[in-house]
Fold this protein.
Amino acid sequence: MHPTYVMLFEMLMEAVGASISFLTAYYSLKAFRLSGRRPLLYLHFGFAVLGVSMMSRVFGSLYIISAIAMPVSVRGMVGLISTACGVMRIASYGLFAAAYSGGRRVEMAVLIPLLVNPYTEFVCVAVMVYVVVQSAINHAFVKTSESLLVFVAFLLMLVSHIMFTMSHVRAMLYLLAHVSQLTGFASMLTMLLKVGREVGEG
Amino acid sequence: MGRVRYRSRIRICVDILRVILREGEVGPTRILYGANLSYDRLTKYLSYLIDLGLIEEVKRGDHVVYRLTEKGLQFLSEFRRVEKFSRAFGIEI
């Protein structure tokens, strides 16, 4: 497949994911302003940083598409974009973990991205395993469709990171990873729409 | 023995509003028992909710009753959405 089409595909997927991330961040902030519960603020920052990370990839992809036509080496830029986005993802997943842990380890969640090496996908997987387990435990207790959708969303994001990590072995996994990530965000969006449709008495 | 979990201010307000919503127009005694509050705290919260425009005081002869305003109804609706969203992530408010 021509690199331009790959980058366009990447841009589209990341743009959709970023939009849903920002929407979730907005709703989290709304919930925090109403209730004052700190974990909601961590959730807000987590989704906001995740959205920024994904938008960075969109702009990075745009740059690479424009550079492909010119005799300019993009290898260094690709590496930089990849590392920067990976670090931001770790920070956002760390904030999700902090939201589930009640904010006791938020300082470590923010510091971790500064301490790790560039193999960020492995760290993302490690942190996301914790987030997925916590969301599964939450669903086991509350048993609502919304909590199930959140669990499914985080699980699919974890699966996407595993596939991204393995995509150097089989290129098809790169495509499947994006599909998994997008489906995860679709699950999050479904939850937001479900919650937003609530009307009537409190 | 488990740790005592105190209600937040917003939770107490919502409990009061839900009692009023359930009853329609209701006097302070029914709210007291429904929301499980002391009289002193109840009067403070009722003043607070009236100042916010979420409830209004109505005189019925010698008695005073409270009812939800349109703003109060919208607030409860919005709180329910926020509650569902937060619970989806395991955060209780």
In short: Residues 3-201 of chain A form one domain. Chain A touches chain B through 34 residues (CB under 8 Å). Residues 111-118 of chain A have pLDDT under 50 and may be disordered.
